[in-house]
Each structure stands twice: as C-alpha cells, then as structure tokens.
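step: validate -> pass
step: tokenize input -> pass
step: predict -> running
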Amino acid sequence: MFSMNNRILPAIFTLANLMCGFLAIILAFYNSMHAASAMIMLSVLFDTLDGRIARKLKADSDFGKELDSLSDIVSFGLAPAILVYFFVFHIYLPFWGIWVSAFFVLCGAVRLARFNTLPHTDYFIGLPITFAGGFVAFLLLFSNTLPTLSYLLVMVILGFLMVSSVRVPKWGRSMEQINKC
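step: predict -> pass
step: emit ->
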C-alpha cells in the first residue's frame, strides 16, 4: 500500500538538490567559484538519489516529478548559467554572455517541460539538464586554463542538445538491466 511517508524521503533528497543549487548561486556572490561548482555537483548526487529512492519505495508521483523539475531548473539551469556568467562571461563577453547564459536556462526549462509530458521510456529525449548543468559546473574548475570561447560554445551546444530529439540511454536503468543478465 502506498503511504504518504514513502514520499517524504525522495522529497527530502529533491529539496537537498534545490538547496545546493540555491547555495551555488549565493556562493557565486561571495566569489567562491570552487565551492559553488561543488554545490552543483552535489546537486547531481541528490538528483540521482531522489529518483532511485522514489522508484525503490514505489513512491513516484506527479508531485515528486514537478518538484524535481523545479529543483532541476534552479540547480542545473539557473545556477550553472549564473556561475559561468559571473566567473567567465561578465569579464570577457558581457553582452554575448548574458544571451548565451539565458539561452542555456531557457533550453533547460523547455527540456524539463517536455520531459514531464512524455511517457516513460528506457531513454531520455534530449540531453538531460542534470548532465548539462553538471558538466558546465565541472568545466568551471578549469576556468583558468580554458578559453572563454569554449564556454560559449559548450553552453550553446548543450542548450541545443537539451532540446534536440537525440535519444540518451538512462544510465541507472540500463545498468540495472545489465546486472540482471
């Protein structure tokens, strides 16, 4: 039988994801790029765990799906875009950096909205925003060695991949199927 208590644990992990995204943005204002990037990477962990826990407890719900998407747009759309703008673009490409950062967030929002309306499959349609935002946060760790143009190109390419029709295998479920063999 489905219990309301089953929904609490996945929601706690989803809210931890959101909290880390929020903290990443706050840490950017304190010029703490490495800690901000780490918060986004920690969000990746919480986002991975919330879904696995929900499936394990059979606690999937429309509420959880919506809460997850709202958390993801902050942690993997808004936070990485703000961090890249703040630590890279505003110095070297202030005008274009605003537009590229906004493009990344908008593509992430479209990707999440589309995800919530599609039936469940063994693959994602479009690059998951969790990967895109996590990758951008990881690249920030190399901001002293990577050229500014690389961030511009990566964010535009990731934005297009998020809204594309490319099929991306779901790791967790693919690994579970491999382990069953």
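step: describe -> The chain has one domain: 4-180.
step: cleanup -> pass
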